[in-house]
Model the fold of this input.
Amino acid sequence: MKKTYAIQVIILFLLMGFNLNAQKIEVIKGDLSFLKSVKLLNVEFNYDKMTVGQLPSEGEYTAKKVKETNDKEAGKGDQWLTEWNDNKTIKFEPAFITSFNKALKKYGVTLGKKETSAKYTLNVSTTFMEIGFTGWSYAKKNSELHLLLTFYEGNNHDKEIAVVKLVDVPGTAGDYSYTSGVRIASAYTQAGKSFGKYLVKVYK
Done:
């Protein structure tokens, strides 16, 4: 019995390692050399073209979730929707910003919202979100994100400088991630950290 448990634990850690290594970062337009002397970046977040799980849009996912939750207990679905929307600004976006800034702290780079004096803006567009789940025993699935990261001059979306695709970014499905907001926020933490570390080569 102990041997079986040990094997299961080893497999779980191997899978976690695989997930962490599976994420990919690719510059699909322009290059990032313009950031060499940039110390302050404005950031904005967008979810307009996001698919969720197997559903083709966030709207379809939230409508389904609200109905299912309200059917179980009146009003609960509406409460869930408020929390879902609040999590974007309260959990997801700060998680990305904090981990990005931590990765580039050594180089004096700061990313922040409403940084009107910044010469460039980074638009973080979430194109896919896997909610994941945490159940009993080994019934777990990591959250996951696909992001499109676009740099603009100032706030002018007509002046697109570079576009980076960041896909297969894993979050957690551990013992403390029964709340979906926590699981998803962990993926944004990983995304900010990964992209920040990727940019280190620009600032070296």
